[in-house]
Design a protein that fits this description.
heterodimer; A: 286 residues; 13 helices; B: 284 residues; mainly alpha; 11 helices; globular
Chain lengths: 286, 284
Amino acid sequence: MNFLVHVLALSAIYGVWGVSHGFLARYLGLTSLAGAVLAGAGAYSFAAFSDKGQSGPISLLIAVAVSALLGGLLVLSGARVRGHNFVLATFCVSLVWDGLARNLELLTGGAFGIPGVPPVLFGDFLGAPLATFLLSGALLSLTSFLVIIIRTRRLGTAFALTERSTDLARNYGAPFRWLLFCAGAAMGCASGLAGMLNAAYVGFVGPTSFPFAVSITIAAIAMCLPRGWTAFVIALLAIVALPEALRFYGLSGSSAAFLRQALSGVVLLIILLLPEVRVFRRRGRP
Amino acid sequence: MQLVLIWSLLFSCGTAVLAAVYVRTQSAELRGFDLGLAALVVLASEAMVQLSHFADSFWVLVVLTVLVSALSAVVGGLWNVFLLGRTERLPDPGGTVLVSGLGFLAVAMGIAGVFRGPGVEFINGLSSAPSDVMSAPFQLAFACLACGAVALVIWFRSRAYLQIRMLEQDRDFAVELGCSSKKIAWKVGLAMGAIAGLAGIAQAAVLGSSLGGGIRVFLLGAAAALLLLEFGLMGILGSAILLAAADLFIAYWFEPRWSDPALYSILLVVLLLRGYSRTAEGVR
């Protein structure tokens, strides 16, 4: 039972990352490969400030602010670098982040990371897996709700205009740079919170917590969102829940991570190159 | 010591040139950056490392090198034909090509990781640390790079290369003249697959086979292809020398662990400065 809750908690955390990045893909047409950067920024900030003796809420606020600012700046660069160049730029950001997380001992603890991250809220009497599942499930519900309702609002229209053309958005009076920054900040906020939950659940954050492979997984799940919620849930179960469930049958942790990476690749290939596969067929634009 | 530095510089430079030619050619044909290069490098270097356990002399390794690069050429050809067939009619296929390549890379890295686990593995029969003036790893690497150079010379003299150049300069006009990327997809895929395989084996010989090695080769190639974009092949050569020198300078005079982040930062800065409308085709 505990193992099932663990699988669900992990799926919900990846779900938050997927929805927040899927929001970017769906409304702004930007595919980001820097998912692990935003999640890692939140987790590292939370762990570092807690380690320095700051109280939980202060560390949480600072971590959310850091990841929101980073997300905002990252997506703001989409005003200058678009299309596949944006994908390549975020790819580079992710790899630079990987190097910084390993080498900046003063901030990140280097290869040893930061142990002793404060446990998740309510973890003492609910147990860490259940508390993480409930909190990440609530966060997933909230982000999904926001992504759904934004479609019917004027903000959704402004995002759609910005996606088509920044000139078009400017002509309609939509402040596209501000919109890009806000979208990135919202994405960073949700990703950072999920990253913190992950770090608090494991009790540790280090270079192995948010490697580039996590960015690939997030991108694969996020790219399913424009294909509909069914595709999103199937991808989430196939990529995250299946390898984690196989650990119950003796698959090692590192093999599960590599299997997750391979499945992410398979999902990306199916979505992009085999659009005739019914589940992942595109359902029209927002 | 100084000779080893020169060999290292030549090795990085040669790898960057091979990778940059792959990136430029594929971006002309497929209209996007093809991360299939990184996947092919991972597959070739991993195949070489695993097959080297059956080798008992240097010459068997040379035969294996030919075999692995031929296999890489076939995989590259299949990948190119499949990718082109699926993305040719898209209005802006750049993102699809790049993310599909990422999918291919993730599958290659994931499967290799499940079977061998993380870490670096070296080719069996070669000393793991290239410390001599011209040790066996450098010999094998330079043999691969020399084969790659010969392949490039043959490629630059072929009709397919001329068609690629025409597609690169003006796609619509080239199509009017009868150039079709679909017709040359096999030739381009085979040539580029072989080049990627040779780069991967050279990488495995000197630095060992790691799952992230392919990404490094791809980004080295993308940076070399974009840095001096306006100067054609001379630009590729010049930027490869610049990048290899910068890589070596950071690795030897500062710390090796900072060379990769510095290299990726250079590409990031180039992308941000060039802006969104600039592509690897050199057309605004």
